[in-house]
Amino acid sequence: MAVWDKNLLWSFMFLLAGAVGQTVIYPLTSTCAVRGSTVTLPCTFTPRKSFNDGWREVPLKIVRVRWCKNHEICHGSVPSVFDSNSANSDPRYQYLGDMKTNCTLQIRDVQQGDSATFRFRMEADHPEGHFTNTTGVTVRVDDLTKMRIISSSDDKKLSRGETITLLCASVCTFHQLEVTWFKDGHALSETGSSLHLSPLTAENSGNYTCALKKNMKTVSEPYSLQVEAGAGNNSCTLIPGVVFVVLLAVIALILFIIKRKLRAAGGETELKVSY
Ligand SMILES: *[C@@H]1O[C@H](CO)[C@@H](O)[C@H](O)[C@H]1NC(C)=O
Ligand SMILES: *[C@@H]1O[C@H](CO)[C@@H](O)[C@H](O)[C@H]1NC(C)=O
Ligand SMILES: *[C@@H]1O[C@H](CO)[C@@H](O)[C@H](O)[C@H]1NC(C)=O
């Protein structure tokens, strides 16, 4: 009996879900973002396919999608950060989704004002298909989070010729990070979130820091890298010696060939003259 009850309840809930059939899922309901970074708010939706107007099933089609900041419903004339019906949305808010299943929103160059709850709304060609999931995604803009350098090597003392990759990261989730790398306080030209040093030379020794390009307050603690001269020293003097000898041999060979060619050419002209 209890099992039957449970089954009935499930079928009923299934029917209800099927009848309404519209969901908006935010896989991430809260996230933090460093000011100046890019954050992605993943979102998927299933629109309602049709509704019964008392006479027949009327098919529904999504005609408008929008995202609002700090508004429960995001309907009517409520200002939105993205609106598929409007051409003048703030370019910082990029809709990566579509009109069918994907409602992902990306916020670039995150500002303090983005500390808010963002909600997605779909609107169909009939109000029966309008829907907002009020849960939303809450973004916390963090200005105090420092970047952190993660090294591919546990060792801070490396030998020359080795390879190391430093990653500039933060506890906040974000994407497409534009960072500035510093070595002993001087900015490097690299802007990616990872710094690849290979092959290491003694010149790579120093204190590395990184910060978000647009927010120097996020500068990390220094990462001290020491590249030891090590056993590389001998081969270092040996290599130019070998190169020199090989070069000499090549030059000698070229000279030899030229000489032979000249001699052959000389023979030919002599032959021509005699004709
Ligand atoms: C609303 O969003 C939350 C978080 O993703 C989800 O758990 C819930 O099922 C959603 N509700 C509907 C009706 O889509
Ligand atoms: C939605 O679109 C974004 C951007 O194209 C993509 O990264 C994401 O994987 C898509 N999500 C799903 C569930 O397809
Ligand atoms: C790196 O920092 C350490 C202490 O934090 C300091 O002793 C050292 O001199 C610094 N190295 C350079 C090259 O500035």
Description:
- InterPro entries: Ig-like_dom, Ig-like_dom_sf, Ig-like_fold, Ig_sub, Ig_sub2, Ig_V-set.
- Pfam families: Ig_2, V-set.
- Residues 1-21 form the signal peptide.
- The chain is an alpha+beta fold and 275 residues long.
- It folds into 2 domains: 21-140, Immunoglobulins (Immunoglobulin-like, Sandwich); 148-228, Sandwich (Immunoglobulin-like), CATH 2.60.40.10.
- 23% of the residues lie in helices and 33% in strands.
- It is built from 2 helices and 21 strands.
- The chain has helices spanning 2-20, 232-274; strands at residues 23-25, 30-34, 39-41, 44-46, 50-52, 57-59, 62-69, 82-83, 93-95, 105-107, 116-124, 131-132, 137-142, 148-151, 157-159, 164-169, 179-183, 186-187, 194-197, 206-212, 223-228.
- Strands 2, 7, 8, 11, 12 and 13 form a 6-stranded mixed beta sheet that branches.
- A hairpin with a 6-residue loop joins strand 11 (116-124) and strand 12.
- It is elongated.
- The protein starts with a helix and ends with a helix.
- Residues 8-19, 232-237 and 267-275 have low confidence and may be disordered.
- Residues 23-26, 29, 133, 135 line the site of one 2-acetamido-2-deoxy-beta-D-glucopyranose.
